Write the structure tokens for this entry.
Amino acid sequence: MKLLKEKILNEGVALSDTVLKVDHFLNHQIDPVLMAEIGKAFKERFTTQKITKILTLESSGIAPSVMAGLEFGVPVVFARKRKSLTLSEGLLTADVYSYTKQETNSIAVADKFLSSGDSVLIIDDFLANGEAAHALVDIVRQAGADTAGIGIVIEKSFQPGGEKLRSAGHRVESLARISSLSDGRIEFLSEVEA
């Protein structure tokens, strides 16, 4: 996705060989015009799928998921990372290890929001090691629903998450696939490689 790649190159910062900071437009401050285009891009990539729900993880996955939800005309459900007094019964849960934060979070979705008849599109902001996506797939499985696919805004293809998900039989569509963050330079996979 050209607009996204331009934003990454112009406003993203490679903090290390594995960490990309995109807080100017995706996960702190949000560019609504870019998010609308991201929603359209996910609709185009999954247009042949019968999507009934979109599932994401709070908080950075919410903006692109809501825009995709508008395009598909379906509800967006987000897994919560923190316990809530209002989220205590009938929970689907999984554990997610965050390499960026160096911690494990238990995520939860109320089971009333996912059912066995759902065809779920999982959307997340980043794909690196695949921990969050695997946890969301597990929640969909616990609900007895089907995972229609996994939409990723930015995939760090030099890390194993994408390969693990694809090897497990999941359709993964990433809008930008980064091949390297070495020496502070952001490089993308060529269209041939992607």
In short: The chain has a mean pLDDT of 93. The chain has five helices and ten strands. The helical segments are 2-11, 32-45, 62-72, 131-142, 161-167.
